[in-house]
Amino acid sequence: MSRLVMKFGGTSVADLERIRRVARLVNAEVAAGHQVAVVVSAMAGKTNELVAWTDGSGAAAQGLDPSDDEYDVVVASGEQVTAGLLAMTLRNSGTPARSWMGWQIPIIADDAHGRARIDDVEPEKLIAAMDSGQVAVIAGFQGVTRDGRIATLGRGGSDTSAVAIAAAVKAVRCDIYTDVDGVYTTDPRIESKARRLAKISYEEMLEMASLGAKVLQTRSVELAMAQNVPVRVLSSFVEPGEAPNLDGSGQGTIVCDEDEIMEKRIVSGVAFSRDEAKISLFGLPDHPGVSSSIFGALADANVNVDMIVQSHARTADTANMEFTVGKRDAARAVEIVRAAQSTIGFDDVAVNDEVSKVSVIGVGMRSHTGVAKTMFAALAEKGVNIQVISTSEIKISVLIDAAYTELAVRALHAAYGLDQL
Fold it and tell me: How many angstroms separate the most distant Cα atoms in the chain?
């Protein structure tokens, strides 16, 4: 008998009627002979409400550290409510079930409260419960530190919880139920011709998640790839009997190893992110150590930097530099850079948060030429100016004016024939 992990996000458990639908989906898998563990998120909107309550408690007085550990106690309670409600619903339908908190399994996490990482999962009790025929309903998003404190895994952390549990219990796969029926070539709300992919490689999904696609949390994909856990993305707004097979037929997208995909597309998708701000530095001294000083200070402040480009300035021995950060980090990044201005000796700094990043992703780029040429030609034909370019082995990203985001996405989707998949 195979073990299966199912994960349901906030919209899938938003109210009691949706929780009852989830119970029907779980019961169908039990009837099919699976030993099931279910990971649940908080009901839609609940985590935001809990975060607002913690904000309302006030800021720490000067000289005192923030109460991040107590913040985690509060925001982790949303998943606890959902786990209990689903376990009750399953029991009321005649299915043996029990709720599990992160500390009861336990899911061991580090002490970076609010953004903790999973160190280990000790699955023995969980496996024993599943082997006895009991459905394990697990509160996602939470673990426990080695000194016994609740630690949350950051936004979207229930995806990571589910993959970690699947790896620990050696599940045949991890099904991520959400409000979309799979991974698409791009956002269907922007391009009506977007196509659902039957399969996508871990690497492609990782790039798409990190570049703005909201289907899966980046860390969950990293973990699935590291542990070789097949992940299936599908809609929770279905009834039993409509679910697809593991081979990718029917609804849903399988995220798997590249070798399991028979025909590798040159480009699998177009992703975009509007959460971008461009920082420009002018008149930087052009000598070793300058970049280290700038990005070291940003790293120390936990500001994540993405695209970076440097060019020679008109004045001898000086350079200009541009890099991108998230919009929320833009003001802090400028403040950090300005604080170092007298030490580094650059002329000026400017910020532009009216930009978007648009990317094309595909494992086929490794073995095909002309991908960049097609991208740049398609954008030029639509009059879209490129400000910054960055590449990796399976992706090309460009920074453009935010006003052209949707036009660029549609142009690239057509240019690579993604509407013909």
Answer: 78
